[in-house]
Every structure is written in structure tokens, then in C-alpha cells.
Amino acid sequence: MEKRKQRYGKRFNIGKTSLLAACYGAIFILILYPLVMLFRGSFINPTGHPTLEYIINLVTDKAIRESLLNTLIISLGATLLSIAAGVSMGWALSRTNMPLKNLIRNVSFLSLLTPPFLGAIAWVFLLGPRAGKINVLIERVLHFDSPFNIFTTSGIIFVSFLYVYPFVLNATASSLDNMDPSLEHAGRMLGASTWKTNLRITFPLILPAIMGGAILSFLETAAFFGIPSVLGVPVGIYTLSSRIYYFFQTFPPKFEQGAATAIPLLLITALLLFAQRRLMGRRRFTVITGKTEHPQIIDIGRWKYLLLGLCLFVISLSIFIPYSTLLVVSLSRVWGIPLSWENLTLENFRFILFGYKLARVSIKNSFLLAILAASLGLVLAFISSFSVERTPTRANRLMSFLIMVPFAIPGIAMATGFLWAYISPPFVLYGTVWILVVAYIARRVPLAFTNCRDGIRQLNPELEESAINLGASWIKTVKEVTIPLIKGNLVTSWLFIFILSFRELSTSILLYTPNNEVMAVTIFTLFEEGEFEALSALAIMLLGVILIGIYLARKIVGTGFMEIKR
Amino acid sequence: MRTKTIFAIMVCCLALTLLLASSVAIAADIEAAKKEGKVIFYTSMDSKTANKLGEMFTEKYGIAVDVFRTGTGKVITKIEAELRAKKVLLDVAQHSDPATFEIWKTRDLLYKYTPEGVDKFYDFARDPDGYWFAVKSNTTLIAYNPTLIKGADIPRSWKDIADPKWKDKLCMSNPYYAGSVKMSVSVILPIYGWDYYKEIGKNNPYIGSSHSGLRTLCIAGEYPLIAPMNSYHVFQVVYDKPESPIAVSYPEEGSVFVAGPAAIFEGCAHPNAAELFMDFMCSEEAQRVFADRAYYPGLKGVYPVGQPRLGDMKLLLPDYDWIIENSEAVITTFDETVRKFRK
């Protein structure tokens, strides 16, 4: 046995050394170098002298302090709402006889994959203070000034919540699904009521999972760029990410201050993720002990309709209402006139497909970049996860840590690092599409890596060993044994990188150059320019592609697909 | 008599040679430009006009124009980023902040070129040093939605905008996105000072980045008042969709004059195509396009319809030296003041 392993290891090692070197090279280029350059940028002034000015400004500059405070308030607000909605929805999905569970699971999942800034734009159409459709309706029917204004802190909290609550929902539902029911049985046998069991036994057991989900909601909100830019910046409410963008856009541009402002965002993220790992790590053993029995489904009588109402309300606010609004606007001649046959047109789609070069260029680029990022990212994720799993050396363990680092870096902070790294020699990628490709890969490779590693972990290495023993080369072994067996993981990884790159805004907005525009950037520009009809048409196309991607993934790997994200 | 004839013939010959020489030079120019194949044009003019000019140029010379269009501020930061990277991608820049062109000139970033026909340009549209030429200009004024703001309510002056009755109804761009707003702030400041912007801040303005975006919001009634607003953004709608509810008011203190210079960058990748494109933008053909799109052309004798002539208007003229001196302070203080006094 020992000998066999040695031989197997040796034969694998010959060709693998070079592959491993390539992996480390990629990690250096994708992750380490931009990160180092981000820090370097924050400490060196334009004339090349080291300075603490930019770091000191983080504390003394009122605008930055205010942005930090706004980021915390908005993230906290969205997280609290997420906990309220996510826990009740998750519990309803896992433990009750509420109807339409599948619909709610599927649609709530869309919140994580569709681009949140489209939601923000749609909500401007609906809840703009004077011309928003819902506000107009309220004024016309109820004859009083509508209290809703989306351009406020609460507006930002509300829209952010709609696109982060599934983190809490998923955490709650899956920990309830996987919980050992014997504890609850014991509670009930000792005479506790159903409600009491839930409150005293179930809830404390799933609390760490809920906290974990809540932390993810918090971090995702803090990293949002599109939502606070659309809803906050025009009325002077900046978050850290929109403030960073401001520093890059102002004149003269303050690149150094932009880089420095990314650091607090990065620290918050790293700290909370660390907390989340600790939280989940310590409690995991009590929560997930394998499914020996199915958890008990509780009949909650009429209450199930109340919960169903809540679920339908939340998924309507996040998916159905905003996206159908975009659809209606995309089919209208003029935004603001009620939909009628005369106002109905396909002109906007014709315009973006044939009449508007920027839209055409960005559609082409979005496909090209997302396909490139997904394919190259998948290769990197597969090779590195295979190395880490099959030859657990110290170097490989280090790699598995490094490759997960981007997970803790918000998109705009990452883009800041990439800008610093690739705008000047030795690696000048700025001005080409490649800077976007590498940024997309770097951002999403952690996801693909964990996904591939989970697949490989479930494979018994003996399958590969026997192929080797039968004389197959290691390349052939990987190709004919490993890859076919984890095909599902590979396909989902590819689709995940594709979808998340296809909708990407916060990184692209800093890194794109003329002719390298992508769809999300063009939609954002069209919004700024007030071309609401054309914007909606492009947005509908973007959503269409993402929905097709999700459909394909589900078709290939079933519902397991939905448990992968984060 | 004889000497006179000989002299006349000599002059004619000289003239002919010069003409030939010059036409040869232009032909060579076009050939070299065609070889370069394209010109990269960063501009802040509206995309319809920019694309139209690009298409006309391509049709005429078979040279592609890569248009990168965004607000003045973003054009400038994009170029500054490229300068940082020591990788200048663009050939020709055009935007609405002449002060920045002046700064670039002193930093030796601009390439000196005198386009054909600029001798027929107004003086205000020509850099005395010959680096930039304002291919188009505009004014900033007050725009409003006439279905929501009527009669005596219509603001008549910049001062009126600060009236508390416009709380939550006013929108504008800001000096770091829009060159025209930077110019406007720089001429309104000496009259009313930062106190004026405190009052503006108290009106809770919606600060958008693009004037066309503000126009959409005004027409939809979301924010019925825009000030300062680019003249051409309003008149383009007046020309194309006259039924849209948007109108202008010329402020008593004067409309703000905003020049939109264009210049070639030193060391650009397509210098010949860039020269040819500058020639084209200054040609009567292109200048007429600007007028049709509601801009004030730099060329004498071409005017936009339905707008008062610049010479007949009360104008506030920006002081570029002052702006160069105070640019950063204006941008930062504007941002802080308007944000701080929001209610």
C-alpha cells in the first residue's frame, strides 16, 4: 500500500511540477500582485515618496468617515431585515407544510444571481419621489403625497436587503434540513410544546448558521456598488465603494486616496469572514450530524398562509415586480406614459441590437469575457483543487489558502488593486480586455475552487490509482477517470463564473476602457444618461442570458446547484 | 509694363506652386492617415453628434473613428489614468473644460496643429497659442418643466434657484462630472459666494452626472427644475420632440459661456488621422452638424436655429487662470457644501 502510493505520487509529480508552478504563477498574477500593489498605492505619493497621508485621511477626512458610517448603517439595516425575513422564510420552507415551497426556493435563489443594480434602477422607476409609478398611483388614488422616496438611506437598505436576504434564508433552511431531529424529539418527549421546542432547542442550534448567513448578507451589502451609486450618490449618500469610485473620477483623480479607502472595506470583510469561520467551525458538529431521519414537518394551520404571503411578498419585491417593470419599460416608446397598444414597441430592442454601436460592442464583450473567464478560471480551479486534494503538501495547503483570498475582497477594492497593478510596467494590461478577464477570474476562482474540491474530495483516489496501475499516464487518468466523474461540479463551476462575470459591474466600471465596455457598464451609463427605454431593453437581454444559464445548470445538476454559492 | 507682367507671371507661378505643394501635402496627409486606419476620439459632446461626425468622417476618408463618450470629468480622469500608465490610447480629446486644456498645454501634453479653415473661427474659439480649437460652444441656463412650473414661479435668475420653494425639486450635475457646471460654479461664486451653495444644498438637489439624464428626469416630472443646464441639451429636444415638456429661462445675471475645445495629444498613435480629423471637425460641413445639434459652432456665420446669438446675449465668461488656480478647491468645497447642508 505504502509503496503503491509512492509510485503513484511520483508519476503524478513529474508533469505536475510544471502545472503547479503555473498555478502559483497564476495566483501571483491574479491575487498577490494586485493586493500588494493596492497597499503600495496607499502608502506612496505620486512623486514616489512614502507617506502616511492617505491613511491618516481615512480618520481625519469627514467625507470618508461619513462613507464608512453610511456603509455600516446600510449593511446593518439590510442584515437585520434579512434576518427577519430569511429566518422566517427558511423555517417555513424547511419545517412547515406551507404550499409553493419549490417556487419560493427557486425564485429567492435568483436574488443572488441576477444583478442587484438592475433592481435599484427598476425601483427608481417605481418609487422615484415624484414620477415613480407607485408614488404616482398613491397620489392619484389616495390623494396624498406619497411617503416613499427611494433616494434615501432607507431606500438603499430596502433594495440591498432584497438581494442579500437569501444568504440567511439558505443558511437557516439548510441547517434545519440537516439537523439531527433526535434532539427535538427528546425535547418533545420531555413534555415541551412544539413552539417551546422550536424556541428552546431548535433555534439555539441553528443560531450560528443564521449568524453566518447574516454576516454574508452584511458583507455583500457593504460591497455593493451599483445600488448605492444609483440610489445614494445623487443625494449625497456615499458608501465606501461609491466613495472609492468618486476618488477615481474626481479631478484631479485621487488614485492613492482611492486605494487607501479600499483598505477599511477590506479589513471589515476579512474580520467578519474570520468571525464567520470561527462561528461556523465551532458549532458545525452539533448542527450537522447527517440526515438520519427527516425533520418533522409541522402543520401550522392557517398560519401557513400568512407565511406564504410573506414569502410571496418578498420574492415579488425582489424579482417579479422590478424585472417586470424593466420589461414594460423596454417595450414602451416613452418611459412615463402608461402602457397601451400605441405606446408598445420593439424599437428599443432594435435600437440596442442594430442602432447603437456601444450596446453591440458591449454585448459581444460580455459574452467573450465571461466565456474566457469561465474557461480559464475553471482550468485553474480544477488543477489547483486537484493538486491540493491529491498531494497535500505544505505548498499546496498554502495554495488553497491563497486562492480563497479574493473571496474576502469586495469587487471595487479588487478593481482598485488591479488598476494599480496593471496600469504600469512590468504588466501593462490596462487598455485591453485582459485586465477584465483576469479580474473576473480572480474574483470567482474561489467559488470554482471550493466547488471542484468538493467534487474531488468525494472521489475515492483508488479509482485513479487503479488506472495508473493499469499503465495509464496521469494525464490520461485525469482525463478519463477524474474529469468524467466530477463533470457536474465542473459544469456548475463554469456556469457560475460565467453568470457572475456576465453581470459584473463593480470591477468592470473601474477597469473598462473604450471599446472594452461590457453590458453592465453600458446599462449603468445609459441610466446616467437618462436613456431608460434602451437601458431596460439591454437589461432584459442580460437577465435573459442569466436565466438561461441558471436553467442549464439546473438541468445538468439538478437542485444541488442551488446550494453552492458561498 | 513688361516688368509688371513678368512679376505678375512670377506671382502666379509662385501661387500655383504653393497651391500644388499644399495640395500635395494634404494628399500625403490623407494617405498617411489612411494607412493609420483609425483615430481614437475621447469626447464629452452628446453621443448622437459624436457618432454622426464619426460616421461622416469614415464615409469621407475610409478611416474609422473610435468614439469614447462620457462626461467631461470622466474624459479627463480617463486621460489622466492613461498618462499615469504612460500609455496614451487616445489621439484627439474634446471636452468642456478649457482650463484643463490650458493645464495640459503647460505640461507639454498637447500637439500643436492648426487645422484648415480655423482662420474663419471666432477669437473666443481659438487658443492664442494654437494648441486647441473650440469646435463647438454652448451656454448654461435654467431649464424647467412647464407643466409643473408656470408663470411667476419660473426662476428668472441664478439667485432664484436658491429659493427654499425649490426644495426637493431641483436637479443639477456637479463640477467634477460636467465641465459646464465647473465653468458655471466658477462664475457664480464671485457673485454670490459659497453661501449661495449652502442655500442650494438646503434645497436637497439631485446631483446627477449627465445632463441628458437630468433632462429625462425633468421631462418626466421627477425633478422639474434643472440649473445650471446645458443649452444644447434642451434645444436638441426642442428640435427633435417639440411636444416634450421642457423650456428654458435665461438668467438675469447672464448665461454662462462654455467653450468645448478639441486638441491632439502629443505622441498619439495616429497623428496623421488625428490631424485630418481636426481638419474635418473645423470644416464647414462638420460645423453645420454642430449647429443642427443645437451647439454654437466656432465657425463664423453658422448659427443654431431658435437660439439667441452669442453676441446678443448677456454672458458670464469664465476666467481660466482663476479656475486653474482653484479647480480642486471648487470641486471639493462644492461636494462638501452641498452635502453638508442637505435636509
By CATH, the architecture of the largest domain in chain A is named Orthogonal Bundle
User: What fraction of the residues of chain B are assigned to beta strands by DSSP?
Assistant: 15-25%
Mean pLDDT of chain A: 87
The tally of domains of chain B stands at 2
The overall strand count of chain A is 0
Could you name the CATH topology of the largest domain in chain B? Answer: D-Maltodextrin-Binding Protein, domain 2
Discrete helix count of chain B? 11
Helical residues, percent of chain B: 40-55%
Q: What characterizes the major β-sheet of chain B? A: 12 strands, mixed
* Strand percentage of chain A: under 5%
Largest interface: A-B, 40 and 52 residues
Task: Itemize the secondary structure elements and their pairings.
The complex is a heterodimer of chains A (566) and B (343).
Chain A: H1 2-43, H2 53-60, H3 62-95, H4 101-113, H5 116-127, H6 133-142, H7 153-162, H8 165-178, H9 182-189, H10 194-223, H11 226-231, H12 240-249, H13 255-287, H14 303-330, H15 347-355, H16 357-390, H17 394-402, H18 411-422, H19 434-457, H20 461-469, H21 474-485, H22 487-502, H23 508-511, H24 519-528, H25 532-557
Chain B: H1 2-36, E1 38-43, H2 47-61, E2 64-69, H3 72-84, E3 92-94, H4 98-106, E4 110-111, E5 133-144, H5 158-161, E6 170-172, H6 179-202, E7 206-207, H7 211-220, E8 225-230, H8 231-240, E9 247-249, E10 255-265, H9 271-282, H10 284-292, E11 296-297, E12 315-316, H11 320-340
Parallel strand pairs in B: 1-2, 1-3, 6-7, 6-8, 10-12
Antiparallel strand pairs in B: 3-10, 4-10, 5-8, 5-9, 5-10, 5-11
Helix pairs in contact in B: 1-9, 4-11, 6-11
Quick tags:
heterodimer, A: 566 residues, mainly alpha, MetI-like fold, globular, disordered N terminus, B: 343 residues, alpha/beta, D-Maltodextrin-Binding Protein, domain 2, 12-stranded mixed beta sheet, 11 helices, 12 strands
